[in-house]
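Feature request, filed as a ticket because there's no other form

It would be nice if the structure record came with a short human-readable summary line next to the tokens. Right now we just get the raw output. Example of a typical job, pasted below so the devs can see what we mean:
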Amino acid sequence: EVKKELLVKLLEDAHRSGEFVVTEPSKSAEAILSAIKMFSTPIFMNVYPMEILERNAADVTQLILQGLLKR
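Raw output as currently delivered:
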């Protein structure tokens, strides 16, 4: 819950400053946390080779940022 609260604040601040477009910060924070859960859960670290985890992490990060950046 602390991670979500911090992320909501970050999203709200970025929205206010005009960096991101976020209409529902809480919902967006939950979606982001769900998307990155694979990279913070130890069990997944043994399922995929490191190269795949790194590529997937980069792809998810890019997708999240593209979805949030002001157009």
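Something like this underneath would help us a lot:
The CA atoms of residues 18 and 68 lie 11 Å apart.
The chain has a mean pLDDT of 91.
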